[in-house]
Write a structure and sequence with these properties.
Blueprint: H1 5-10, H2 12-29, E1 38-41, E2 47-49, H3 50-66, E3 71-74, E4 87-95, H4 97-102, E5 108-115, E6 118-126, E7 131-136, E8 157-162, H5 166-179, E9 185-187, H6 192-201, E10 206-212, H7 214-226, E11 230-232, E12 250-255, H8 258-274
Parallel strand pairs: 3-4, 8-9, 8-10
Antiparallel strand pairs: 1-2, 4-5, 5-6, 6-7, 10-12, 11-12
C-alpha cells in the first residue's frame, strides 16, 4: 500500500475501518449476551467465550481486508504476538468477558492503532448501549467530554483494576478498604477499556490500575491522555502509552483532574507503606 502523507496524518480511513469492524463484531455477538458459551478457561478467574472468538475473527478479518500490510495483535488464539510492523492494530475483542457472559451490561470492544511506538488512534465500542468513544492523534474525543469541575477526592468515583494474579487481587481488596472512607466509592467492574473511556468522558473520575496487560488498557489510556487528561505511574511520573510496554504489567493512575491524580498517588504511596 502506497501511503501518502495526508493518508497517514488524518487517520480518517483507519478510523472508518475501526468503526466498521467494531460495528460488525458487535452485531454478531449481541445475541449471546447473558449466555456463558465457554470455549476455554484461562485460569481460575477468567474464561474465553465463543463471543470472544467470534468478535475477534470479524474484527481481524475486517481490518486485514482494509489494511492488509498492517500487523495485528489480539487477545485470543494465534494473534497474541506483538509484531514489529510500522503500523499495528491492538485488539481486545471483548473487554469485560465475564460481565458479558453473566448478563452484566458493562463491556466493550477495544481497537488501538500504533505507528511504531506511539498510539495514534483508539476506539472503544459498547456493543450493548450502542455508544462508541473514539479519538485520533491530535483530534478531539468523540463524544465530547463533560466539563471538568475538579472533583475532590472525597467526592470522587474511582475505578480499580488489578491483574488476575493473587497478589494483585489481594492488593486490590486491601486498597478498596483503604479508600472506602477517603472517596465517594470504589468500583471494580472488570472492563478497563470501557472504564477508561468513561474517565476520558467524565462519567468516572479516575482509575487506579495495578498490573494490567497493555492490550486491555492501551486504547483507554490513549483516550484519557490524548483528550487532555493525565496518566501517571504509581510513583507519579508521567506515563505515555507506547508499544514497548507490552512486555510487562502496566500500572498507572488516570484522571482528567491533575489534583485528583496527585491525591491518588499519595494514597497509593500511603497504603503501600502501611501494608
Amino acid at each position: 500500500m502506497n501511503l501518502t502523507k495526508e493518508f497517514v496524518t488524518t487517520w480518517t480511513p483507519q478510523l472508518r475501518a475501526a468503526h466498521e469492524a467494531a460495528r460488525a463484531a458487535a452485531d454478531a455477538i449481541r445475541g449471546q449476551f447473558g449466555q456463558r458459551f465457554i470455549s476455554a478457561y484461562k485460569g481460575p478467574h477468567d474464561v474465553q467465550l465463543t463471543a470472544d472468538i467470534t468478535s475477534q475473527k470479524i474484527i481481524v478479518d475486517s481490518l486485514r481486508e482494509s489494511f492488509p500490510h498492517y500487523g495485528i495483535v489480539a487477545e485470543e488464539g494465534d494473534h497474541d504476538e506483538w509484531g514489529r510492523e510500522e503500523f499495528l492494530w491492538a485488539v481486545d475483542p471483548l473487554d469485560g468477558t465475564n460481565n458479558f457472559g453473566y448478563g452484566i451490561a458493562h463491556c466493550a470492544l477495544s481497537l488501538t492503532l500504533f505507528q511504531d511506538e506511539s498510539a495514534v488512534l483508539a476506539l472503544v465500542a459498547d456493543p450493548l448501549a450502542d455508544r462508541t468513544f473514539h479519538l485520533t492523534q491530535g483530534g478531539r474525543l468523540i463524544p465530547a467530554p463533560a466539563p471538568t469541575y475538579g472533583v475532590p477526592l472525597h467526592r470522587a468515583t474511582l475505578s480499580l483494576v488489578t491483574g488476575y494474579a493473587e497478589d494483585g487481587r489481594d492488593w486490590g481488596h486491601g486498597f478498596t478498604g483503604w479508600m472506602s472512607s477517603r472517596c465517594k466509592r470504589v468500583v471494580n467492574m472488570w472492563a478497563p477499556a470501557l472504564d477508561l473511556a468513561l474517565v476520558a468522558g467524565g462519567a468516572i473520575d479516575a482509575m487506579v490500575c495495578r498490573d494490567a496487560a497493555l492490550l486491555d488498557v492501551c486504547g483507554g489510556m490513549f483516550l484519557v491522555e490524548e483528550s487532555g487528561g493525565h496518566v501517571v505511574d504509581l510513583h507519579g511520573d508521567p506515563l505515555t502509552v507506547r508499544r514497548s510496554l507490552h512486555d510487562r504489567p502496566v500500572s498507572f493512575i488516570a484522571a482528567r483532574n491533575p489534583s485528583l491524580v496527585a491525591d491518588l498517588v499519595s494514597e497509593v504511596r500511603a497504603y503501600n507503606a502501611s501494608a
